[in-house]
Design a protein that fits this description.
alpha/beta; Aldehyde Dehydrogenase, Chain A, domain 1; 2 domains; 7-stranded mixed β-sheet; 6-stranded mixed β-sheet; about 20% strand; NAD; oxidoreductase activity, acting on the aldehyde or oxo group of donors, NAD or NADP as acceptor; Aldehyde dehydrogenase family protein; Ald_DH_C; Aldehyde_DH_dom
């Protein structure tokens, strides 16, 4: 299989300087999907140098807001033009269903359009009352500079857009390193940026491993901002390297997210059906490979038996298979490494006393097609408690743990008993209770009687070890800007502080 040049530096597509390539695998059958350039430190340095020149000497940072906004809108239109192509790339590369891929493209389109609108609707700065008619004081926003962007393998295109769209809207240049496991949709996005008319050097991509590419971006002295989405261990290590260079940093490091279900949410057949359906959606969409997955079901004791029985019954019926096949509801895990990790978590949970209600193994070869893919059956583990490794750590797989509570205070205590704080949900038929509990949860996003929707207008990020900073919303744009105070004396005169 021939390789494609996937390193883009200063407007040119290049192979790796070393000549090395990497196999990108199709997780549905473990075959090679594409050979891509395997970049290293030399490629990274070249990309940062191009971004530095484009920022310091190029026109993009000084381009009129209307022009930057217009480019983002053109990119949004191109994304919709290529919707089916990109959705197929994303499905084949990550294993998610084709319909999930289409939803991702639409969400990416919305992100570009949102940030295009935000910068167009801003004023020329915030006027500050200096208390004197002889002073004009204003706070303006300027681009940070060269941005290093690191994205994860589970939502490669979506996470890229959450960084690229605000970075460009603010007038920055960037180098992006997508996950080496799923780089293909990000490569396509860079091509669309070029087609939309983005000047050479503004958008650069280096495909390759976290070591050396990601680490070099974190350490590079010519990078002004380091934005990372991924796992806690690698994120904190890279973030520490970035902080040592006094860079501005933003880290989104995942979560271990509670889905709290009160008995009153299940008081009617319709309410019960909705709560069970949403619990399945929370835990098993994209095979649980979601940073905000509702992997911890925290349910009121009085409805636990009925709820878990129905949950397990429906989970067993989830159809596994290649994401592009009709009727498939869940695709494979992204890699053999991830499959091994999920198996280890389930084994540890059972050793610690969890009760297996369904799943807990790879499906039989006759039950899924292709049989050689990285598939794992949706798994429900009952009788779990906070001391279990599977409850404490982010599993990033189709594993749902079940904990129970008796009172509202107990529910809140359980939901907040985590090092993370990215997202969570409350299901209740009592509006006052739902809002009261939501207010007490220490998580960056809290859903009430729903799970997973997000809005590009609303900030996304977490408390605790879920990270630093926010993406999306007005704050998501501010991450890519510096504030500058300009104080103008309209009637200058001597101060006479010193006698002279």
């Amino acid at each position: 299989m021939s390789s494609i040049a996937t390193i883009h530096v200063d407007g040119v597509w290049l192979p790796a300087a070393s000549g090395e390539t990497r196999e990108v695998l199709d997780p549905a059958d473990a075959t090679t999907l594409q050979l891509v350039s395997e970049g290293g430190a030399q490629d990274t340095d070249a990309a940062v140098a191009a971004a530095r020149r484009a920022f310091d000497e190029g026109d993009w940072p000084r381009t009129a807001v209307a022009e930057r906004s217009g480019l983002l809108r053109r990119v949004a239109d191109l994304l919709q033009r290529d919707r089916e192509v990109i959705a197929l790339i994303e499905s084949r590369d990550t294993g998610k269903t084709l319909e999930e891929g289409r939803v991702d493209v639409d969400d990416v389109t919305n992100a570009f359009r949102y940030f295009a609108d935000v910068v167009m609707n801003e004023s020329g700065g915030r006027v500050v009352d200096a208390g004197s008619p002889d002073v004009h004081s204003v706070v303006v926003h300027e681009p940070v500079g060269v941005c290093a962007l690191i994205t994860p393998w589970n939502y490669p295109l979506l996470q890229a857009s959450w960084k690229i769209a605000p970075a460009l809207a603010a007038g920055n240049t960037f180098v992006i390193k997508p996950s080496e496991v799923t780089p293909l949709s990000t490569v396509h996005l860079i091509k669309l940026l070029v087609e939309a008319g983005l000047p050479a050097g503004v958008a650069n991509i280096v495909t390759g491993a976290g070591l050396p590419v990601g680490q070099r971006l974190a350490e590079h002295p010519d990078v002004d901002l380091f934005s990372f989405t991924g796992g806690l261990v690698s994120g904190t290590k890279a973030g520490a390297a970035a902080v040592s260079g006094a860079k501005k940093i933003a880290l989104e490091l995942g979560g271990k997210n509670p889905n709290v279900v009160f008995a009153d949410a299940c008081a009617t057949d319709e309410g019960f059906d909705t709560a069970v359906d949403q619990a399945l959606n929370a835990a098993f969409i994209h095979s649980g490979q979601v940073c905000s997955a509702g992997a911890r079901l925290i349910i009121e004791e009085s409805v636990r038996d009925r709820f878990v029985a129905e949950l397990a019954r429906r989970a067993e019926k989830i159809k596994l298979g290649r994401g592009t096949e009709d009727g498939v509801e869940c695709g494979p895990l992204v890699s053999q490494q991830q499959l091994d990790k999920v198996e280890a978590y389930v084994a540890s949970a059972l050793a610690e006393g969890a009760q297996l209600r369904c799943g807990g193994a790879r499906p039989e070869p006759s039950a899924v097609r292709p049989a050689t893919g990285y598939f794992y059956a949706p798994t429900v583990l009952d009788g779990c408690h906070r001391e279990m490794k599977v409850v404490r750590e982010e599993t990033f797989g189709p594993i749902l743990t079940v904990e129970t509570f008796g009172t509202e205070d107990e529910a809140v205590a359980l939901a907040n008993d985590t090092e993370y704080g990215l997202a969570g949900a409350v299901f209740s038929g009592d509006t006052a209770r739902a809002r009261r509990v939501a207010a007490r949860l220490r998580h960056g996003t809290v859903w009430i009687n729903d799970y997973h929707p997000y809005l590009p207008q609303a900030e996304w990020g977490g408390f605790g070890k879920s990270g630093i900073g926010r993406e999306l919303g007005p704050t998501g744009l501010d991450e890519y800007r510096e504030s500058k105070h300009i104080y103008e004396n309209l009637r200058p005169e001597p101060v006479r502080w010193f006698a002279g």
